[in-house]
Amino acid sequence: MMKKTGTPSAVSFTGAVKTYGTVRAVDGVDLRIARGETVALLGRNGAGKSTTISLLLGLTEPEAGTVELFGVAPERAVRAGRVGAMLQEARAVPRVTVRELVSFVAGRYPSPMPVAQALELAGIAELAGRRVDRLSGGQTQRVRFAVALAGNPSLIVLDEPTAALDVEARRAFWDSMRAYARRGHTVLFSTHYLEEADAHADRILVIDRGRIVADGTGEQLRRAAGGNLVSFDLAGRGTEGLTLLPGVRSLEVRGERALLRTDDSDAAVIALAELGAIRGLEVAPASLDDAFLALTSRTRKTV
Ligand SMILES: Nc1ncnc2c1ncn2[C@@H]1O[C@H](COP(=O)(O)OP(=O)(O)OP(=O)(O)O)[C@@H](O)[C@H]1O
């Protein structure tokens, strides 16, 4: 994750703010993505993922703070073909072949990727002669990926790239993305699928209400959110004082069971044993889902 001194980061946000009326869609984001990283931007609907990506691509300007790609303004990096993007909005699909479309886009950049290579990387070499308006959803998405690769970018930005794809198309898409990343390129993708972030990114940025609330590997996020969950049958007893026990961070009651999120499950279990609260006791590692919920609900409480 260390970047070479003197080399500008692929992506750099410093105190970036973007508001829509009273909504602070991006609320003071500081962020560095080093070259070669694959990073997931993970958040619920409306968390600020698309707005972050719009700022990153220079489609919208921050009201405060700065955004740079490779040390220059986003528009400049985009124009130079250093950045490829796949955005959410579906554009009208032209009646041309896949090869014609990718060639046309490649022709607009100063040093494009050879078309055959873009098609190969996107896994659609065999579709080159097919009409773009007659493809399946999964195939269309990979054509869009080839279009994003056409300028031979060092950074690719994907806004919820697999949102409408079935399992097989999704797997094929990620294979292509990883082939691109293995060449030392930088990838930033947004998603609200935790598993995708965990499986395909080196690093996960959790965004909530326009702020980065966590930044790390899936494993680091799991740990940050509270290592283990300790649960037991309440068996009629109250929950008073449970959150004050050593090692306990928070409490949730599900039916007859108490769920304690802990950062020291041993201490919590000993304390529960002293209280005699051990019926049906279980200790389980927190999942990434738990981590995500804990991270995003914690911020909700503080705003
Ligand atoms: N053009 C706009 N005009 C007004 N409000 C906007 C606009 N774009 C985004 N917002 C608001 O800014 C906030 C962040 O939206 P954004 O689209 O960035 O979130 P997101 O994480 O990409 O969500 P989703 O997963 O639903 O795409 C939301 O509250 C949204 O309603």
UniProtKB/TrEMBL annotation:
Cell compartments where the protein resides: Cell membrane
Gene3D superfamilies named among the record's database cross-references: P-loop containing nucleotide triphosphate hydrolases
Domain of life per record: Bacteria
CDD domains: ABC_DR_subfamily_A (cd03230)
InterPro entries cross-referenced by the UniProt entry: AAA+_ATPase, ABC_transporter-like_ATP-bd, ABC_transporter_ATP-binding, P-loop_NTPase
Keyword Endoplasmic reticulum appears in the UniProt entry: no
Recorded topology in the membrane: Peripheral membrane protein
Keywords: Antibiotic resistance, ATP-binding, Nucleotide-binding, Transport
KW NAD (keyword) present: no
Predominant localisation class: membrane
Protein name: ABC transporter ATP-binding protein
Annotated source species: Streptomyces macrolidinus
